[in-house]
Amino acid sequence: MKLIHLTDTHFVGPGLSLYGVNPRERLDAAIADINRNHSDADLVVITGDLTHWGEAAAYRNLVECLSSLVPPVVPILGNHDNRETYREHFPDAPVDNDGFIQGMREVGRSSLLFLDTNQPGTHAGWYCEKRLAWLDAQLGAADREIFMFMHHPPFRTGLMSLDRIGLTQASDFRDVIEPHAHKIAHLFSGHVHRPICGSWLGIPTSTIRGTNHQVAFNLSPKESDIPFTYEEPAYAVVLIDRDSVVIHTHDYLYQGGTYVSGVYQSREEEMEYALNFSPLAAQ
User: Is 198 helix (H, G, I), strand (E, B) or coil?
Assistant: First the structure.
């Protein structure tokens, strides 16, 4: 199975920029790159903050943009999104019995689980009792390996400005997950706009940079405002086999070109080439 992980597209209305960058142009470029190199992907998942202010114009802009994507896509909610407006523009999205945008999808030998951590009026993550009960039932019934997708990471990242708006019910969420942790092959999240990997409760986890703007790497406990940067956007290519999960992070706007070291008759000849190599000549 091949999955594509995108996150934090932060769309606004057509033709508008956000923090000096046009979100539509950034996602258009990602989609063109995915279509060119990964049209065989089984699914693309966008882990939230689809729009920046949740307006209808932004969702229309996003729907139009995603219409050119070759693989199927599942966009989930983040704290910047509006659940009702989202449902108007993505009528086929999975919805549970309580109206939350979450569901399970079987792909190959695996189950993909999509969670809704959105709560109106706050940028913090929220996973109420109804959602916890739904999640517990889904995990209890699952008989396949699970790949889980959510916007807010359920653990502290060390980025204090983001951890302050992390998952509010983190302890309750942990209590539901822990008995089923052995079923979860990987946890994908968004929200932090950083390339981070690690594990939680023994579950491998990862997130990536967003497609519009990024968050600076700053572990200072004094940081209160969220410091944004213009680091390159990225998406992840997830290759899943019977005994492995391999994740490649791709900086899709990189235009520096490639080069090869070549084949040399002697070590001296190789050293001459490598030590006098001009990066500009490789572009």
Answer: strand
Beta-ladder partners of 245:
240
Q: State how far the Cα of 280 lies from the Cα of 277, in Å rounded to an integer.
A: 9
CA dist list (Å): 33 to 188, 202, 249? 21, 33, 13
Q: Which amino acid is at 83?
A: R
Vertex 91 angle, CA 138 and 214, to 5°: 80
Cα 103 to Cα 94: distance, rounded to the nearest angstrom: 5
pLDDT of 101-110, one tens digit each?
999 999 989 9
Burial of 247: CB neighbours in 10 Å, binned 0-12, 13-18, 19+? middle
List the 110-114 sheet strands across, edge first: 103-107, 110-114, 145-149, 184-188, 203-207, 196-200
Q: How far apart are CA 101 and CA 269, in angstroms?
A: 60
- How far apart are the C-alpha atoms of 26 and 14, rounded to whole Å? 13
**Whole-angstrom distance between the N-terminal and C-terminal Cα of the chain?**
33
> Of 153, 160, 157, nearest to 225 (Cα)?
160
Closest CA to 238 of 275, 188, 165, 194: 188
* CA atoms of 147 and 1, how far apart (whole Å): 12
pTM over 0.90: yes
Helix, strand or coil for residue 149?
A: strand
Whose CA is closest to 85, among 150, 13, 25, 22?
A: 13
Query: For 175-212, b where at least 16 C-beta lie within 10 A, e where not — what string?
Result: ebbeebeebbbbbbbbbbbbbbeeebeebebbbbbbbb
> In this predicted model, what pLDDT tens digit does every residue of 156-204 receive, in sequence order?
999 999 999 999 999 999 999 999 999 999 999 999 999 999 999 999 9
